[in-house]
């Protein structure tokens, strides 16, 4: 037996902010945003919907899809940089709301790489047979920390939540390999300051293009596979040019890549699990498929995981 994903869920807010809407707020244009980022629109949560609410809705779907009860969850891991408040944690709020009475709970902070860090942390508990079912969520309400006057960052981000149940799966399925990394010396290139998100786009772009490709190749190699064995690449949805650079590095056809950035923009820790859940809804995840999930984020952090899909 090994650790794998047995259930998925997602939540995306109803409110849509298009590039044309942003043209009215900052000095930008639809063409500028589309050509440089690939984003057409993003979702923004209502004022009365906070991070824990979005996490709850996604979690309920994942639990139902996994066919388990909330009382069976042993651990809740929430990856976020936008909790409702400093404390209590989003994970503890969820534990109460879900009725997951026996679950331990903690939040993780690895920015856009948070979900990857979360599922790999969960896998260690599963493989050690410490826990049986772990709820992992990537969720962000970035709209509450965005500086809507900053044309360089206001156009990039959105809100959403994605959830997964990590449990034991049959031999040959589940997580085959992973890589996690960090470089704190690059923290100055992307951080949350007094006036919102601050980003050195040029430096983050260079880092992401290099690291996404390197990490994908590394986890494929660790899994004793070749890049031609990849059935689906699910990258962090930050910038279409970064995604395309990774695709070309792996020599993958476009249909083997999950593209969700045009609808949602960059939703940080929620980006990968939302894309994964949507691919499942679309019937793109078949038993035995080899998936590579890869992300990068503030810290600077990065991570990738190679999974053979199935229970």
Please summarize what this structure is.
The protein contains 9 helices and 13 strands. The chain has 311 residues and is α/β, with parallel strands linked by helices. The strands form 4 sheets. Strands 1-7-6-4-5 form a 5-stranded mixed β-sheet, with helices on both faces. It has a 4-stranded mixed β-sheet with strand order 8-13-12-11, with helices on both faces. Strands 2-3 form a two-stranded antiparallel sheet.
Write the layout of secondary structure elements.
Layout: E1 2-11, E2 15-18, H1 19-23, H2 30-37, E3 41-44, H3 51-66, E4 75-79, H4 90-98, E5 104-108, H5 114-127, E6 133-141, E7 159-169, E8 174-182, E9 190-193, E10 196-199, H6 201-222, E11 232-235, H7 240-250, H8 261-264, H9 271-281, E12 290-297, E13 301-308
Parallel strand pairs: 4-5, 4-6, 11-12
Antiparallel strand pairs: 1-7, 2-3, 6-7, 8-13, 9-10, 12-13
Helix pairs in contact: 3-4, 6-7
Characterization of the model:
By secondary structure, this protein is α/β, with parallel strands linked by helices. The protein folds into two domains: 168 residues, Thiolase/Chalcone synthase (Peroxisomal Thiolase, Chain A, domain 1, 3-Layer(aba) Sandwich), CATH 3.40.47; 135 residues, Peroxisomal Thiolase, Chain A, domain 1 (3-Layer(aba) Sandwich), CATH 3.40.47. Helices cover 32% and strands 27% of the residues. The protein has nine helices and 13 strands. It has a five-stranded mixed β-sheet, sandwiched between helices. Strands 8-13-12-11 form a four-stranded mixed β-sheet, sandwiched between helices. The longest helix has 22 residues. The model has no long low-confidence stretch (mean pLDDT 97).
